[in-house]
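quick one: zinc ion bound model?
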Amino acid sequence: MNDISPLTKELFKLPKKVNTTPLHYVRRNRILNALLFYKYFCYKISKLLLHSYTPSHESKRYLSFFLSLFNLVSKLPYQPKAQALQNKDFVILPISFLTFNWDPFLPNTLLLSANKLNKELQKKYNEENRVLTQVYVDFTIPLRVIRLSDKPNQNFCHYMIATDGAYTINELTAKSFFEKSKLTNNIAIRSARFFPAHGLFNIRFCPHCKQPFKVMPKKITQMSLENLNGIREIFLPDPIPMENDFKVISTKFRNTKIFESYLSGNPDELQCPYCDHPTYFEDTPLSVQTIFKFDEPDFLFTLKVSGFSEFLKSDHIIILGYSFPTDDMTNNYLLELLKATPANEKGTKKKRKKGWEEEKKEMKFTIIDYSSHLLLTQKVWYGIEEIENILKKHPKLKERYPISLNLNAVKKLSPNYRNNVRISFYGFPNILKKVSPKSILKFMSPN
Ligand SMILES: [Zn+2]
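yep, here:
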């Protein structure tokens, strides 16, 4: 009780003996300021880590994992029939990613891997194949994108399409073949869903028009994972820039909008691509794993609902580094909804219903968490009951080596969790030292 502030003690005279957990009363704005500081602190730490990070085997491992992922799951039918372009199985790749990290490293790895695959597909493409398949990373909601390399007078913006957009483009391609419309299109899009449930450092939310947008340093084709070119620059809009930021801004980003922001003394200022209203670091919607969710903008809630409803259509969900903490109630509740019957999607109700119900029963979950304890790293995959048994036999394990994984929440993911949920404690990407990407992607029951 010593950690209650003197003021709180005076306001709430607590009885001498309190058997229940004491409540701590703190003013709302104080928590908001503390949370904002915490978010900025994490931003700075991620930035510093990325700066001191030498691209090595680690980043190559990441890239090769996602490349093999796209190659494996896309199993691109070389001449996809025009009729099939709007099928769910064609449009939505069977694997979705769920992350609770704010760091843009993972999403960018996905984007760059997809880009690399697309280049290969473009090389192979010839007129005979007629349809050019391309894989897009889909954040489950359509997002406008601003590039830091954009010039101040640039009056167009970039988009990231979501699944709806993919269906529209594929419909146009199918029509160009069937109806021989004047508007011809030959691109067929397959989408790999990536869902950052807690927000990302490079997604902002305009306080004026209430629209979310994504910040990218430059064109994806100009970025590289091997030397982190274009990934470090994500952290340029910073209220307290580092010495190196000024160097990068004045050499590589001269005469851009971000250059002007630096000149005007507001280095984290970025204009909203919808209404031109200025936005700042504090307009980055980041969800903190706590019950204090009151400062979350509607956008994060929309993202969650839209993301989770998209996830309902997945065959296999890979969850990286999330331990389902009990105080993260919204997410745990939404994860529970994965079991519930989803609303059918507009327009494709009949076609999908049957396939969807069949797949629902088979929905698989791979959870990659981290623990260094010997008992939990004797093999790659554990089932929930196995972990429970280990904890029963070694009750002290939970105290001495806290296992953060909330098994009760994990159980709720699938009615048949014995066969459909597997957990590894090797962490990502360390697990890639132990098993091939193929065995991560191909779900095998842990039992
Ligand atoms: Zn706006």
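The chain has 17 helices and twelve strands.
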